[in-house]
Design brief:
By secondary structure, the chain is mainly β. The chain has one domain: Immunoglobulin-like (Sandwich). Helices cover 0% and strands 41% of the residues. The chain is built from no helices and seven strands. The strands form two sheets. The protein has a four-stranded antiparallel β-sheet, with no helix packed on it. The protein has a three-stranded antiparallel β-sheet with strand order 1-2-5, with no helix packed on it. It is elongated, with a radius of gyration of 18 Å.
Length: 119
């Protein structure tokens, strides 16, 4: 990664509820403590979270100011999503390269049972 320590660790806690079919990815990573050249980080850090289907192109999911984010919209069952992070340091014209990616497959949820009563 340009200007930042190369290792950003991504950890995902993903869950799907059979009742609501909600799919959630909680993305947690470790912030860099120095640039790759060993110099100190002097500006405030923010992070771009990139998301896409495994093997596909990623799009910017959002920019955050903490090392944790939860994504709960747009995640479809039967698909595998991947995320990576780009570090932005205020006052530094060069962003980091994309971190290593982490992926999570979401299973298809079983359909809800619908009861229709005709009188």
């Amino acid at each position: 990664m340009r200007n930042f320590v190369a290792a950003l660790l991504l950890v995902f806690a993903c869950a799907a509820s059979a009742q609501t079919a909600a799919r959630t990815a909680t993305i947690t990573f470790t912030a860099p403590t120095a640039r790759t050249d060993g110099s100190a980080i002097t500006g405030t850090l923010s992070y771009q979270v990139w998301q896409g289907l495994k093997g596909g192109t990623k799009a910017l999911a959002g920019t955050i100011n903490t090392t944790s984010a939860t994504i709960s919209t747009g995640l479809q069952g039967g698909k595998e999503y991947c995320w990576d992070v780009v570090v932005i340091e205020a006052g530094n014209p060069a962003n980091s390269d994309h971190s290593a990616e982490a992926c999570k497959a979401f299973s298809l949820s079983s359909p809800n049972t619908v009861t229709i009563t005709v009188q």
